[in-house]
Every structure is written in structure tokens, then in C-alpha cells.
């Protein structure tokens, strides 16, 4: 079978510091640290995301999200492999339930890009996936079918859109056969970092899904939204998908008022509602991205004073054991 355009683009992803430095004309002095940190969590970026970065600028806000830095090797108290204690919420292999009424299916470990601050950068995917192929979800699907309190399933990962259209269809056909499910949610960064993923095949898959479907995208900076991303969002909306966005507040990427206000406007113009602004999770190797709660509140207060209410995301932090994400009031 011929590979789709998005699969061909994925096969051209940059995965080494050397290739990244060469592609962006960056200073080679970045290389030793980048090599060390990339050994722990591989560098990965798609050509289309790379094309939105400014050449030669090591402080580019998109580059900072994917560039391995020496700071990742520094140890800080309170920064751990699994800050959200996700292992404790495993109900079946590949099925997590943190909150009432919804459960999260780990569909794949593959992502189109590797975000250095990712809270699942050390997630034990191999432990969860004893079985291969469709069989890997059978225990999770059985657990969902047996629990009538569940009304929503969240496809997560990794990035669920890394799966082929036929694998997605197989999965959603099985979910749709469960009568108590009322909504499908998909947590994905691919329409942003790999907009070619939103192609005829993906739209056909969406049209086969009868459950109301919400995509929660992940955009941190307005520079991530170009014409291709806007076109991908328009196709998704045309297929009946509700589009929300979650951002992570990241030092050196989006921790200033003008940047966040511009992001909210750009999201809305692309048909996406700014939904959550997350305080970064305290994952080992990511302390250099941290923004204090006081600064985060100040920023959201500034957004509230400046923008219409529907353009202001909710400032939240995930706290293990809480009944929902914990909103930080400004
Ligand atoms: S796309 Fe999401 S899951 Fe994948 S590395 Fe980035 S933050 Fe983590």
C-alpha cells in the first residue's frame, strides 16, 4: 500500500541534534549538550513544524519546545518521572481513569514531535503494551464496556493520530458498540505539528464516528498556527469536530502577556477555543520550563483584563488524587 503524504513527511522527521543544527543554521556549540539530553529522550520534529522556526535563532519559541538542553540533566527536588502518579490510575493495560465518568485510552507511544516538557516523557509504555496490534486494547475495551458510569473515552498517547486510519476505525468501531458511551475525545498535537495528517482518510474516519467528537489540540505559541494549520482546523470543523486547545505555560516560550494574548486570538481565528493553560507538571528534566504560580496568575489576570472572557483559558494544575484538574483562581 502507498504511504500517505503525512506518513512520508513523518519518515522525514529530524531526529538528531546534528540534523537540527544544520537545518536551522544554529551554532554547533549546542551539540554536545543536545546529544547528551537527546540520549535520554530522543529529539524529534516534523519538517513542517521546523519550517515555522526562525533560522539561526536559538531562542525561537518553537525551537525551545523541541531542543534538548543541558538543563535537562540537572536534578531538582520534587521533579520526578511520574509527577501525576499515573501508574496508580491504571484500570487495565492501556486504560487510565483519573476522573469520574471518563477514562483515558493510551493508544500508542508514537508522537510526531517530542516536546521536551512532556509529562509522559518517561511513561512506561512497554509495561502497558504486553499485546501487539488490536489485541493490545482488548482488556481496556472490556473494562470500558463493563463500567456503565463511563460516558466519555479519551484517546491519548503518545498521539492517537499516529495510528493509521484503519487502526483508528477498528478502535472507534469497538467503542461505538458500547451503548453507554456518549462522547469521544481525542488529545492530539498532529493537526498542528503535522497538518498533512488531516487528509481525506482522516475525514472519512471522522465521518464513520457517530459519537460527538472533541479534539483537544495542543498549541503553545501563535507562531505554530500557519495557513496549513488553519486549513486543517477548518477541515476538522467541517467534519463536525469541536476544537479546544490546551497550552502549557512554559518559561522562555509563552510566559508573557502579549504572547498569550496573541495566541488566544490566533486560536480563535483558526476556529479553536482556548480552553486550558496548564502550569507545567514537575517532570524530571523540565525544571527550566517552570513558571511560578504567582506569575501565572498575574498573566491570566492580565489576559482577563484585556480579552473577551471566551478567549481566556482556565489556568489549571493537575494534582494526583484530585477529582478534576485544579483551577488556579486569579
Ligand atoms: S505531542 Fe503530547 S504526548 Fe507527544 S511529546 Fe508532545 S506533549 Fe508529549
What this model shows, in words?
By secondary structure, the chain is an alpha/beta fold. The chain contains 13 helices and ten strands. The protein has helices at residues 5-11, 17-24, 31-40, 47-50, 63-66, 125-128, 138-146, 165-176, 190-193, 200-208, 227-238, 257-269, 293-306; strands at 90-92, 95-96, 102-106, 152-156, 183-187, 213-218, 242-248, 273-278, 314-317, 326-327. A ten-stranded mixed β-sheet has the order 1-2-3-4-5-6-7-8-9-10. Strand 8, helix 13 and strand 9 (314-317) form a beta-alpha-beta unit. Iron/sulfur cluster binds at residues 111, 114-115, 118, 120, 157-159, 189, 218.
Report a brief summary of the structure:
With 330 residues, the protein is an alpha/beta fold. It has 13 helices and ten strands. Helix 8 (165-176) runs parallel beside helix 10 (200-208).
List the helices and strands and how they pair.
Layout: H1 5-11, H2 17-24, H3 31-40, H4 47-50, H5 63-66, E1 90-92, E2 95-96, E3 102-106, H6 125-128, H7 138-146, E4 152-156, H8 165-176, E5 183-187, H9 190-193, H10 200-208, E6 213-218, H11 227-238, E7 242-248, H12 257-269, E8 273-278, H13 293-306, E9 314-317, E10 326-327
Parallel strand pairs: 3-4, 4-5, 5-6, 6-7, 7-8, 8-9
Antiparallel strand pairs: 1-2, 2-3, 9-10
The structure holds iron/sulfur cluster.
Amino acid at each position: 500500500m502507498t504511504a500517505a503524504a503525512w506518513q512520508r513527511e513523518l519518515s522525514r522527521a529530524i531526529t538528531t541534534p546534528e540534523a537540527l543544527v544544520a537545518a536551522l543554521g544554529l551554532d554547533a556549540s549546542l551539540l554536545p549538550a543536545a546529544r547528551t539530553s537527546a540520549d535520554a529522550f530522543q529529539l524529534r520534529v516534523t519538517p513542517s513544524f521546523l519550517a515555522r522556526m526562525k533560522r539561526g535563532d536559538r531562542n525561537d519559541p518553537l525551537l525551545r519546545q523541541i531542543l534538548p538542553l543541558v538543563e535537562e540533566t540537572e536534578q531538582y527536588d520534587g521533579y520526578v518521572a511520574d509527577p501525576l502518579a499515573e501508574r496508580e490510575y491504571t484500570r487495565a493495560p492501556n486504560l487510565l481513569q483519573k476522573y469520574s465518568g471518563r477514562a483515558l485510552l493510551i493508544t500508542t507511544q508514537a508522537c510526531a514531535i517530542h516536546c521536551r516538557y512532556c509529562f509522559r516523557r518517561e511513561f512506561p509504555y512497554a509495561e502497558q503494551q504486553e499485546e501487539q496490534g488490536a489485541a493490545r486494547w482488548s482488556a481496556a475495551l472490556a473494562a470500558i464496556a463493563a463500567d456503565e458510569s463511563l460516558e466519555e473515552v479519551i484517546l491519548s498517547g503518545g498521539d492517537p493520530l499516529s495510528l493509521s486510519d484503519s487502526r483508528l476505525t477498528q478502535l472507534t468501531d469497538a467503542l461505538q458498540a458500547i451503548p453507554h458511551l456518549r462522547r469521544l475525545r481525542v488529545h492530539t498535537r498532529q493537526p498542528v505539528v503535522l497538518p498533512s495528517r488531516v487528509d481525506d482518510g482522516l475525514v472519512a474516519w471522522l465521518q464513520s464516528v457517530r459519537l460527538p467528537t472533541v479534539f483537544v489540540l495542543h498549541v503553545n505559541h501563535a507562531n505554530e498556527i500557519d495557513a496549513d494549520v488553519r486549513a486543517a482546523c477548518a477541515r476538522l470543523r467541517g467534519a463536525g469536530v469541536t476544537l479546544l486547545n490546551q497550552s502549557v505555560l512554559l518559561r522562555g516560550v509563552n510566559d508573557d502577556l502579549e504572547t498569550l494574548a496573541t495566541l488566544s486570538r490566533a486560536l480563535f481565528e483558526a476556529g479553536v477555543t482556548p480552553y486550558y493553560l496548564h502550569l507545567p507538571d514537575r517532570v524530571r528534566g523540565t525544571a527550566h520550563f517552570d513558571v511560578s504560580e504567582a506569575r501565572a496568575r498575574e498573566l491570566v489576570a492580565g489576559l482577563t483584563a484585556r480579552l473577551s472572557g471566551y478567549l481566556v483559558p482556565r489556568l489549571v494544575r493537575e494534582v494526583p488524587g484530585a477529582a478534576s484538574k485544579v483551577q488556579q483562581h486569579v
